[in-house]
Amino acid sequence: MYKVTSFVLKIVSRCNLNCSYCYMYNMGDQTYLKQPKFMALETVQFFANRLRDYCESSEIKYVQIVFHGGEPLLAKPDYFEKCVSIFKTTAPKVEFVFTIQTNGVTLDQNWYTLFQKLEISVGISIDGPKKYHDEYRVFHNGKGSYNLVAKAIQLGNKNRLAGLLLVVNIGIPVHDLYTEMKNLAVNSLNLLLPDGHYDQAPLGLDVNKWNDKNYTPYADWFIDLYKIWKADKERPKIYFFESLVKLIMGQDGIGNQLIGRRTNGVLVVESDGSVEVVDSLRACFEGITRNEINVHNNKLEDLFEDETFQLYYKAHDHVAEQCLNCPVFDICGGGFLGHRYSEENGFDNPTMYCQDMVRLIAFIQNDILNALPAESVAELDTERLVYENVIKGFSTENKIKIDPVMQQKLVSFKKELHI
Ligand code: SF4
Fold this sequence. Notes:
By secondary structure, this protein is of the alpha/beta class. About 35% of the residues lie in helices and about 10% in strands. The protein has helices at about 40-60, 75-90, 110-120, 130-135, 145-155, 175-185, 215-230, 240-250, 305-315, 320-325, 330, 355-370, 375-380, 385-395, 405-410; strands at about 5-10, 60-70, 95-100, 120-125, 165, 190, 235-240, 265-270, 275. A 9-stranded mixed β-sheet has the order 7-6-5-4-3-2-1-8-9. Helix 1 (about 40-60) runs parallel beside helix 2 and helix 7 (about 215-230) packs parallel to helix 12 (about 355-370). The protein is globular, with a radius of gyration of 21 Å. Iron/sulfur cluster (SF4) binds next to helix 10, helix 11 and helix 12.
C-alpha cells in the first residue's frame, strides 16, 4: 500500500537561470523541451480533482503542495491566487501546506506579501558566497545571480522566509560558507548532495581517487562544517545534520529520500499534467521517469503501478547487499536512489557517496556518544564506529544475502534495457 502526501507541481518548465549542475537542463535528460512552459489552470484543476479523490479514498487529511519549476516565479502573481483557491475549494476537507522553491532572483516585497497572504512558505536556493554562487548559478548570458538572491534573502528575513536550500560545493571553504550564512542571518538551511552517479561524477569529485578507500571529500567537508555549526550557540537549523543526529539517537519518522529508512511518499506533476517519480532521477538517463500517466486521463493511484515509482517509494528497503549488511544502514538508508545508478549494475549499488556517509555518520555518532554520560550510552542501541573497520567489513562475506528477485529488479533499471 502506497501513501503519498507530498506533491511537487512543476508549474513552469523553463528557468531564468542556467545552473551548470542542474539535473533538468544540463544532465542526461532533455524531455523538459516537450513540456508546455506553464501548467494551465485547467491542468491544476484536473490535478486538484484527482487529489481530492485520492485523499478521500486513502483517508489522507494533510497534503503538502510544492510549487516548483523550472523557476516558479516566472508565473504571474494571480496564478498563485487561483491555484490556492482551486485546491481549497476542490478539496475543502484536506488541510494544505503550500511551499514554493525559487531561485530568488525576482523575489521582491510584492511576492513576499502575496505569499504571506496565501500562506505559501518560501524556500530559496543559493550556492554560497558570491564568488562560488556566481560560478554556477548563472543567467543564460553567463552573468551571476548572487546579488539578486542575497537581496531576496535579506528581504525574506523580514518576511518569514522559511529557509535556504544549498547544493553542496566542496570547493567552498566551510568557514567561508558558514560566515556567509551568518552574514545573511539565515535561520534555516538544508544541504543537498549534488546529483551524480557512478558514470557521472558530480562537480568537485576527483574520479582518479574514487577507488581510494580513504577518499571521502564530502564527509571531510561536512565534518568541518558540523564542528563549526555545533560550536555556534546561535546556530541556524541545518536540517541534514539535525536529521542525522535524530536518526543516530533512534528517533522514528526521520529522514527523506537522501537518508534514513522512511518511504518516499512524493510524486511530481509536470506542466502538461504528467504524473511521475521525482525528476532528479533524470540525471540517470533520458526518460527514466516517463510513463503514460496524466491527470487528464488517470487517477493519481495509477502511478503506483509504475516500476520506477515502486522502487523509489521503498528505495531505503530496496538496496544493494552491501547496505543490508552495513552497520549504519538505518541511518544512511543506502542513500538517494539516483546516486546509486551505474550503467553496469542499474541500481544494484550503494550510493556513490557510500564512503562519505560511513565517515560522516561514524564521526557524528562517536561525537554524540562522547558527549553523553556512560549510563545514557548504555541505554542507547548504538556503538562507537571506526571508519576503517566498517570499510574493511564491506570486503568480507555478507551475512545477509539479497533476495535474488530484488537484485534482478535493481539491475533491470540499466539504461541499455530501456532504449
Ligand atoms: S553507508 Fe554505504 S553500505 Fe552503508 S547503507 Fe549507506 S550506502 Fe549502504
